[in-house]
């Protein structure tokens, strides 16, 4: 859940990304455009695999860290609690 300070609205229009390679923004698991832009109250966001056409990583994701990153610095007065749930299933 993200908690916003109504007196300090997010105006940076930065994107929030989720994935395995935080050094770029071409391969990602999911993203949110203009994250928290103009939001002045508590919000809950649920993300799922976006199915990008280029994939989420150029190599295997086994034992790879999962990251959350942005396209730049945010300017608003908000904070987030992030919860991650996953399941690993090997298909032969």
What topology emerges from the helices and strands here?
Layout: E1 2-4, E2 16-19, E3 30-32, E4 67-70, E5 78-80
Antiparallel strand pairs: 1-5, 2-3, 2-4
Description:
- There is one protein chain.
- The protein is mainly beta and 92 residues long.
- Helix content is 0%, strand content 18%.
- The strands form two sheets. It has a three-stranded antiparallel β-sheet, with no helix packed on it.
- It is elongated and about 55 Å long.
Brief summary of the model shown:
This protein has 92 residues and is mostly beta strands. It has strands at residues 2-4, 16-19, 30-32, 67-70, 78-80. It is built from no helices and five strands.
Count of DSSP H/I helices: 0
**Strand residue content:** 15-25%
Number of strands: 5
Helical content (DSSP H or I, runs of 4+): under 10%
What's the rounded overall pLDDT mean? 85
**What structural class do the secondary elements suggest?**
mainly beta
| Radius of gyration from the alpha-carbon trace, in angstroms | 15 Å
* Overall outline: elongated
Topology order in helix (H) and strand (E) letters? EEEEE
Strand order of the largest sheet: 3-2-4
Low-confidence stretches: none
Could you describe the largest sheet, including whether it forms a barrel? 3 strands, antiparallel
Oligomer: single chain
Number of domains: 1
What's the end-to-end separation, in Å?
37 Å
């Amino acid at each position: 859940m993200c908690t916003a300070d109504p007196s300090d609205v997010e105006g940076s229009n930065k994107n929030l990304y989720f994935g395995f390679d935080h050094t770029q923004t071409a391969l990602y698991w999911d993203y949110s455009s203009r994250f928290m832009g103009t939001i002045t109250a508590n919000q809950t966001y649920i993300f799922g695999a976006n199915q990008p056409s280029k994939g989420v990583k150029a190599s295997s994701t086994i034992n790879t860290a999962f990251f959350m990153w942005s396209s730049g610095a945010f300017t608003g007065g908000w904070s987030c609690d992030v919860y991650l749930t996953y399941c690993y299933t090997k298909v032969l």
